[in-house]
Design a protein that fits this description.
Elements: E1 2-5, E2 9-13, H1 19-26, H2 29-34, H3 43-59, E3 64-69, E4 75-82, E5 91-96, H4 105-119, E6 124-129, H5 134-142, E7 146-154, E8 157-165
Parallel strand pairs: 5-6
Antiparallel strand pairs: 1-2, 2-3, 3-4, 4-5, 6-8, 7-8
Helix pairs in contact: 1-3
Length: 168
Amino acid sequence: MIIAQTQRLTLRHMNDSDVEFIFDLYNQPSFKENIGERGIDTLEDAANAIRHNQHHYTNLGYWLYTIELNQTGEQVGINGLVKREQLEHPDIGFAFLPQFWRLGYAHESSLAILDHAKNLSLKTVLAITSPQNQASQALIRKLGFESRGQTQLDENDTVNLFRIELTT
């Protein structure tokens, strides 16, 4: 199911065709450094992660989506909204294969995700970044999020917290 299309990108529900892509993305050193280890050690783990996403599409109406290039259909990253127990509102989350960094895809897809959040009648969206992830912090600020300091997701995970109020 397609969630949004931009000039260059299609955002769609993850499906079984994404298993190898998700495995590759989640095992990039940059992903593990900036987002964390997610236990995607096998293709079966990737398939389970996709099923987890599909469960949330049904129950929440959102989660993480696969991003493809319109011209080629190549999978380049993920973007979407995640609802964590530790946070009051959903937060935007994105990750791209390193060869697709600095091409504007994160910004373009994040604008589409914020529009999607409005369509879901969400009023507030959060963003979290690891303290050392300057590139993501710059993007989050460019999107209009305001810093809310730091918060603890768990005893070992301090993150920078950002917030945006959506207007219709």
